[in-house]
Design goal:
The protein is an alpha+beta fold. It is built from 16 helices and 39 strands. Strands 5-6-7-8-9-10-11-13 form an 8-stranded parallel β-barrel, surrounded by 5 helices. Strands 18-31-19-27-23-24 form a 6-stranded antiparallel sheet. A 5-stranded antiparallel sheet has the order 17-32-37-34-35. Strand 8, helix 6 and strand 9 form a beta-alpha-beta unit.
């Protein structure tokens, strides 16, 4: 593109290197908010807060696996009502940018890809591989007819659509990107299409498409990014498609923050360059259920925690922060428009301590759940048709006198090991490969491995890697065979599956629970397993839940899986949206993998852990 030209017939045109909207110069002032990370009853509140921040646009990814967990069964209802979210944003006066991927990263499980896709034999994600393109074609056949009528050209709020996502950080298949562009157009996308990549030559070379607006994603050095883009793309507007004004957190790491003044300063830098921007995140929300993904630094897995607060201007519970106030001031100065004030922070339930009542030991619970699948070798999660959760592997090998070294090849990601019902070890991938010695008396033992998927990798070359036991299990040099495995999709368990009603009525555990198959129940082990607490509420409000003394596990509220918890933090509290609660009695249930505490606490505010400033740079 060259100066003096006009590009496109969409709502956003490019004239002399600048955006024009409805015949007037325009600057995109956007913020990221993901409908799949915010309870739908709170969409309006959070979008109104983005308006109050001074933004004119909201952008969201579309998570393929959130809608099509099982192949050929897409779901657009309830929480998955993407069209309803887009329409609501338009009703509030916001333009909408949609980022349909099909890869989204987003610290989301598997980068948004369904496990049935990534687990298909021979699959090559994010490439011109025919089987992959066929799957994307079918998915876009479902998605694009829902988006096209919501474009500005049809009177809707969608003004732009992103092509893939930071593809130049991953690969360089230009044919794939060209195919995706043509598929968007064939699917009825007439508004602005753009690419988004890091601000380096390497990343822009791999991810840019000729004739398609190229934007950058970064957290600092705005002038440097603007210069690089303008040198490469004369006549195009400067756009920061993701301004990292905060950052996400991995389990076991500090809580990443960015100073309000520092974040607002980079916003001012972009605007001083005449640029447009999107705050990533404007409102982060929560990785409810088992949707949080994981990274890998080349040496270890880095699972992402449940909170996705991301130190955003609008906090996880909708609270207005100092960062909100400072960024708002910068936007008001730049535009001369002062939006209405944000509504007060939503109410929070008062502090309380609730006794946690043990119900069933860990082995008792998982042995009685699901159905056994028998196989010669331990199956992967993908072979079990299991997206996320746990798998219980059981075999009965003979352990020689003097014991043997138990090793697990390809453990993904963590295993609690039991021998004859006794916990003997907890292994991660490295420990599993090194092995653990188990005692033996020359007889068969019941060997059980409870394997946890801690989140599928969402970024980098290990994207699409499988879960479970991907190799074999050995005693010294001998393979262990003849396995019985139970798939435990915890995010599909609810009040009925967990027996809340029955246990609350103090009925016999073994009488009518769905968790009925398998060996007879053992005595409750108060050190781990299933436990419940009862919360009485007069009027539902937000809550911050803590589990002091508990180690690692999963927590449900009224049958809704809030997410994972882990004592290593950084987060110490878990956000409970008010719509999950009801007036009267509410049941909190935990499945503890390590050691069960005695109480559940409600705390008056979020506790997200020790802070560490983090600013992403490209050197």
């Amino acid at each position: 593109m060259s100066a003096g030209t006009t590009v496109g017939t969409s709502a956003l045109s490019i004239v002399d290197g600048e955006f024009v909207r409805d015949g007037r110069p325009h600057r995109i002032l956007s913020g990221s908010m993901h409908y799949f990370r915010v309870h739908p009853a709170q969409w309006r509140d959070r979008l109104e807060r983005l308006v109050a921040l001074g933004l004119n646009t909201v952008d969201t990814y579309v998570a393929w696996n959130f809608h099509e967990r099982r192949r050929g069964e897409p779901d657009w209802s309830g929480w998955r009502d993407l069209e309803g979210f887009v329409a609501l944003a338009g009703e509030l006066g916001l333009d909408v940018i949609v980022r349909p991927g099909p890869y989204i990263c987003a610290e989301w499980d598997n980068g948004g890809f369904p496990a049935w896709l990534s687990g298909a034999p021979g699959m090559r994600l994010r490439s011109s591989h025919p089987a992959y393109l066929d799957a994307v074609d079918a998915w876009f056949g479902e998605l694009l007819p829902r988006l096209a009528p919501l474009q500005a050209s049809h009177g809707g709020p969608i003004v732009a659509v992103q092509l893939e996502n930071e593809y130049g950080s991953y690969a360089d298949d230009a044919d794939y990107l060209a195919w995706l562009h043509d598929r968007l157009v064939a699917g009825g996308i007439t508004e602005l299409i753009y690419t988004a990549d890091g601000p380096t030559e390497l990343m822009q070379d791999g991810g840019s498409v000729p004739g398609v607006l190229a934007t950058a994603t970064f957290g600092s050095r705005a002038a440097q990014a603007a210069s690089m883009l303008r040198e490469r793309r004369d006549g195009e507007p400067f756009v920061c498609a993701e301004l990292w004004n905060g950052w996400f957190d991995h389990w076991g790491d500090p809580h990443h923050v960015r100073t309000p003044a520092g974040a607002a300063g980079v916003v001012a830098d972009i605007l001083a360059e005449g640029g447009s921007l999107s705050l990533y995140m404007a409102h982060g929300g929560t990785n409810f259920g088992l949707w949080s993904g994981a990274n890998h630094d080349g040496a270890r897995l880095q699972p992402t925690q449940t909170s996705y607060d991301s130190h955003a201007p609008v906090a996880e519970n909708g609270a207005i922060t100092e960062k909100f106030r400072l960024i708002r001031e910068v936007l008001v100065d730049a535009t001369g428009r002062a939006p209405g004030e944000a509504s007060p922070t939503p109410a929070v339930l008062p502090a309380a301590t609730l006794p946690l009542r043990p119900i069933a030991g860990l082995l008792e619970t998982v042995r009685r759940a699901g159905h056994e699948v028998r196989s010669a070798m331990p199956p992967s999660f993908e072979e079990l048709g299991l997206d996320a959760g746990l798998a219980l592997y059981r075999a009965e090998p003979i352990v020689p006198r003097g014991g043997a070294l138990l090793t697990v090849r390809g453990l993904r990601d963590r295993a609690v090991v039991f021998v004859d019902g006794v916990r003997v070890a907890v292994l991660d991938a490295d420990q599993a490969a090194a092995g653990v010695r188990i005692a033996g008396e020359g007889r068969a033992v019941v060997l059980e491995l409870l394997v946890e998927n801690q989140g599928r990798i969402n970024y980098g070359p290990l994207l699409g890697e499988g879960k479970g036991i991907l190799g074999g299990v050995q005693l010294d040099r001998r393979l262990v065979q003849r396995w019985s495995t139970r798939a435990l999709p915890l995010d599909e368990w609810g009040e009925h599956e967990l027996g809340f009603r029955k246990w609350a009525a103090n009925q016999d555990d073994s009488a009518d629970s769905v968790l009925t198959s398998g060996p007879s129940p053992e005595p409750v082990d108060h050190r781990d397993g299933l436990a419940t607490a009862v919360l009485e509420v007069e009027e539902p409000a937000d809550a911050f839940l803590a589990l002091p003394g508990s180690g690692k596990g999963f927590v449900w509220v009224n049958g809704f899986l809030l997410g994972r918890y882990w004592q290593i933090g950084p987060q110490l509290t878990y956000y409970v949206p008010a719509p999950l609660l009801r007036a009267g009695e509410n049941t909190i249930t935990v499945l503890e993998l390590e050691h069960l505490g005695g109480t559940v606490e409600l705390r008056p505010q979020a506790e997200l852990g020790p802070e560490q400033e983090y600013i992403e740079t490209f050197d």
